[in-house]
Amino acid sequence: MPKAFAASPADIERVYRAIKRIRRVEEVTADIYPSDKIKSPVHLAIGQELVSVAVCDVLKPGDVVGGSYRSHAVFLAKGGDLNAMMAEMYGKDTGCCRGKGGSMHIGDAAVGVAGSSAVVGTQIPMMAGYALALKHQAKGGVAVVFFGDGATEEGCFYETLNFAALMNLPLLFVCENNGYAIHEPIAKRRARPDALCAIANAMGVPARRVADGNTFAVRDAAGSAIERIRKGGGPEFIEAQVYRWREHVGPNEDFDQDYRCRSEAEPWMANDEVTRLAALIDPAIRAAIDDRIEAEIAAAVTFAEQSPPPKPEELHTNVFA
Amino acid sequence: MSSPETGRQLRYVDALCEAFDQEMERDPSVFVFGLDVDDHKSIQGSTKGLLQKFGPERVFTTPLSEDAMTGVAIGAAMAGMRPIHVHIRMDFMMLAMNQLVNIAAKAHYMWGGQVKVPLVVRSMIGKSWGQGAQHSQGLHSMFMHVPGLKVVAPSNAHDAKGCMIAAIRDDNPVVFMEHRLLYPTQSEVALEPFTVEPGKARICTHGDDITIVGISNMAQEAIRAAELLAEVGVHAEVIDPIWLAPLDIETIAASARRTRRLLVIDNSWTMAGASAEIIAGVMERAGPQPGIQAERMGFSPSACPTSPWLEELFYPNPGTIAATAWTMVRPGDKPWAPSPERTKLAYQVQFKGPF
């Protein structure tokens, strides 16, 4: 059993709502996907929602987050507009990126979602640039960059760890380690798969690993890190072990493929945070939360389906600012 | 907007420095960073005095890390700052291609206009004194290829200042190419801030016999070639595109339609390069019977050798440019070339290493 972390009923309800909402958005997305209405490759967060929710729960509105092509969770957790995200996946003009980014490139600048990137690792130095700007502004803002274990094999990861430490940037590195880069397990890619935190520490960025998939454990680690960073303590690194339940890209499970097996996923599914947190909440309250989530998602789908496509002239709009 | 005539002569390198100084004074969001910007040599003097005036928060060196530093510049620009990122050689920008092509050029578009990337990426092109294969490349066509990037290659001190101020004020990423041999060259530069705006070429000399387009320092070499050609009765119209993206193809096309001869001299290779783009753009605008003879010159299709005897053969020069133009204009006459002694440009003769 995971260790119990201090959390009030209000905390649990808020966090449950955020995780459940992302889970249901992803499940609904997967359900719609075979209809071909969503014209965008989707990298679903199912199984990994807890990290975005835990970290964003301790952020302030002025803080900025950025992530990878698998960023539905961080977008929604930071307060990104659900209607706009759904419309973006539909390629509609009302999408958060006017239908020009799709699922892999989502952003909502108004709430501090800087934009997600599909070239692995590129968001890491980009968010260090945000951190540099926040440091110059000196208002206590913090930047957070989310990335997977694959991104830690890119050169810019090491370059950015060094620069962030050197410049004492207000930057939290959050590695969502799901153990796979597309279909390749970390043991085939790294001489020391367990050394991510050691690497960050060696580069001058204090690191902490949360291995048990407990939302409040990640929240605890993020909360204390963010507090230190906000006070000028410099960058920190969190490695959160998670498991991706669906295929790398697309709506389906892929345990029938030959690169991983269901037995590997089962312990994670058995300790699913949506189920665990749900059990901690009064059933009537939980039902009300769930009903609201379903209504919100249904409205977002309707919004996306009824929104107009972009006009032809949009093709050439925003090439240059 | 061009500068009023003041008569003040300034070196290219000092014109750049003055642009940084004035823009950093005007706008606190402007900062300069990159390896060596704050050291005793201050990028050949182009960032001299900025550290003392604006402090280490706005003028600072970096780890080499070209890839990540470009990402940092992009993120800072998206967050509202105006970074000037410096590479001491354009060759090193290959390490920044991922961020420049995949993020800087795309950010405004793929995130639906929510963010802008007001970023200037400076780099120098080397020549002579053994710069060799990896300190001499003009790689502008790689950046011209990508929508969302602006590319500029000023060939004189006036344009260096005006283009730099325009680049800093631009809300888009600008690849700013400087030629090392131009640094000591002087021209008239107004003291007050002014801009040389994107998308406008300059006609440097007027003539009816042939249009010669020169890119970066090749504009200076083409002007010298035109002087030599004038002595033998051939009148060349030399055009400096200044900005390569956006490219003022209309000015070049109008001249070529009139002279019916177009010679493009690039400070790079010709294969899939800026010279190919310029000639294609002119021909597309020339109608069904263009009647325009076109040729181009550029780096030899090899790496740049360090031996001066070989390097001499690697580049076009005023002599080879003039000889090529002569043959285009007077195809029936016997070939002509100016005396090699008269083709040497003073600023190139004077240049000594190591840089």
Task: Please render the helix and strand layout as text.
The complex is a heterodimer of chains A (321) and B (355).
Chain A: H1 9-32, H2 49-56, E1 64-67, H3 72-77, H4 82-89, E2 113-116, H5 123-137, E3 143-148, H6 155-167, E4 171-177, E5 180-181, E6 184-185, H7 196-202, E7 207-210, H8 215-230, E8 236-241, H9 262-270, H10 273-278, H11 283-306
Parallel strand pairs in A: 1-2, 1-3, 3-4, 4-8, 7-8
Antiparallel strand pairs in A: 5-6
Chain B: E1 9-11, H1 12-26, E2 30-33, H2 50-54, E3 59-60, H3 66-78, E4 82-87, H4 97-104, H5 107-110, E5 120-125, H6 140-144, E6 150-152, H7 157-169, E7 174-179, E8 186-188, E9 202-205, E10 210-214, H8 217-231, E11 236-240, E12 243-245, H9 249-259, E13 261-265, H10 274-284, E14 293-297, H11 308-314, H12 318-329, H13 346-349
Parallel strand pairs in B: 2-3, 2-4, 4-5, 5-7, 6-7, 10-11, 10-13, 13-14
Antiparallel strand pairs in B: 1-8, 6-12, 9-11
Largest protein interface? Answer: A-B, 43 and 41 residues
Q: Give me the secondary-structure category of chain A.
A: alpha/beta
Name of the top-level CATH class of the largest domain in chain B: Alpha Beta
What is the 3D form of chain B? globular
**How far apart, in Å, are the first and last alpha carbons of chain A?**
53 Å
CATH class of chain A: Alpha Beta
CATH topology of the largest domain in chain B: Rossmann fold
Shape of chain A: globular
What structural category characterises the helix and strand content of chain B? Answer: alpha/beta
Number of helices of chain A: 11
- Any idea what the CATH superfamily of the largest domain in chain B is called? Thiamin diphosphate (ThDP)-binding fold, Pyr/PP domains
Report mean pLDDT of chain B, rounded to a whole number. Answer: 95
Extended strand count of chain B = 14
Query: How many domains is the backbone of chain A divided into?
Result: 1
Please state the second-level CATH architecture of the largest domain in chain B: 3-Layer(aba) Sandwich
Largest sheet of chain B: 7 strands, mixed
Stretches of chain B where pLDDT is under 50 for at least 5 consecutive residues are none
How do the strands line up in the largest sheet of chain A?
Answer: 2-1-3-4-8-7
Task: Return the string of H and E elements of chain A.
Answer: HHEHHEHEHEEEHEHEHHH
What is the CATH third-level topology name of chain A?
Rossmann fold
